[in-house]
Amino acid sequence: MADYIKFVDVTKCDGCRACMVACKNWNDLPAEPEDFSGSIQSHTKVTANTWNVITYDEHETTSGNFEWLFRHQSCLHCVEAACEKACPEDAISHTKFGSVVINADKCVGCGYCVQNCTFDVVELATYKDKHGKEYRKAQKCDLCTSRLEEGLQPACVTACHTDCLIYDEKGKVLSEAEKRLAKIKERFPNANIYNPQGIKGTTTVYLLAEKPSVYGLPENPKVPLSQVVWKDYAQPLGKAMFGVTTMAVVGSVIAHAIKKDSGDHKGGQDHE
């Protein structure tokens, strides 16, 4: 299969929220009413049951004017995904489409993926078993992998009426993105294509009207070294030498170090 990506041109978004509705419908996600906060934004951020949110930011430009900056906020499906690295149960993986998915059968609800997600999109949903006992599972956007497997486009893309969202061949999309970037530079001099290479790129790529930090995105995210060591070296070696049970104990110790390292890393990122 060709290398495809989802492209989000925020300068074409009109904040209609059709993508949010389509996502809820396709994934059968429950409604999450929120108290009115005085903002036109429906939800503060994505949650375990609201996998994409349109953010609204009134931004003052360098010329002294105000612009409404919209962003389709959802999982970016990092090529090097911190959530996958942090998971001690191998419950998170990449598909052939580049989407990062969570295996609910393997997830134990530990929350390490939540604590370490580069973009703060993974959350835990609470369920009850037949005895009424509560348990948790990590949930987030999966890029509509079930639709991709059937040759369909992500639900959010099909619902977008402004072509803000596109799912197509990577080379073609990025080529058109560069042309679009050149065209909007006069109006948005800080416009940029957001595809951070510190995490080897993302399967959801943005064309932003302003610097990433204006949208609450890290300027140059990277997966902490401790996560890479844990997932790629310590875990495979440990399982081979000590067995799965022992590695669960070792994993909890290392995961605690990962959490601290991630917190320090995120604290050092620039936000506005």
Architecture overview:
By secondary structure, the protein is an alpha+beta fold. The chain has a single domain, classed as 2-Layer Sandwich (Alpha-Beta Plaits), CATH 3.30.70.20. It is 32% helix and 19% strand. It has 8 helices and 10 strands. The chain has helices at residues 18-27, 82-86, 112-116, 145-148, 155-159, 170-184, 225-242, 244-267; strands at 4-9, 53-60, 66-73, 92-94, 100-102, 123-128, 134-139, 165-169, 192-194, 204-208. It has a 4-stranded mixed sheet with strand order 8-1-10-9. The protein has a two-stranded antiparallel sheet with strand order 2-3. Helix 7 (225-242) runs antiparallel to helix 8. The N and C termini lie far apart (39 Å). It comes from Robertmurraya yapensis (ex Hitch et al 2024). This is 4Fe-4S dicluster domain-containing protein.
Give a summary of the structure in a few sentences:
With 272 residues, this protein is an alpha+beta fold. It has 8 helices and 10 strands.
Task: Record keyword descriptors for this entry.
272 residues; alpha+beta; Alpha-Beta Plaits; 4-stranded mixed β-sheet; two-stranded antiparallel ribbon; 32% helix; globular; disordered C terminus
Residue runs with pLDDT of under 50 for 5 or more positions = 267-272
The number of helical elements comes to 8
Which CATH architecture is right?
2-Layer Sandwich
Major sheet size, sense and barrel closure: 4 strands, mixed
By helix and strand content, what is the structural category?
alpha+beta
CATH class: Alpha Beta
What would the CATH topology be?
Alpha-Beta Plaits
The number of domains: 1
Write out the strand line-up for the largest beta sheet, numbering strands in chain order. 8-1-10-9
Overall pLDDT: 87
Order of helices and strands: EHEEHEEHEEHHEHEEHH
Helical content (DSSP H or I, runs of 4+): 25-40%
N- to C-terminal separation?
Answer: 39 Å
Shape: globular
According to DSSP, the number of beta strands is 10
| Percent in strands | 15-25%
C-alpha Rg (nearest Å)? 19 Å
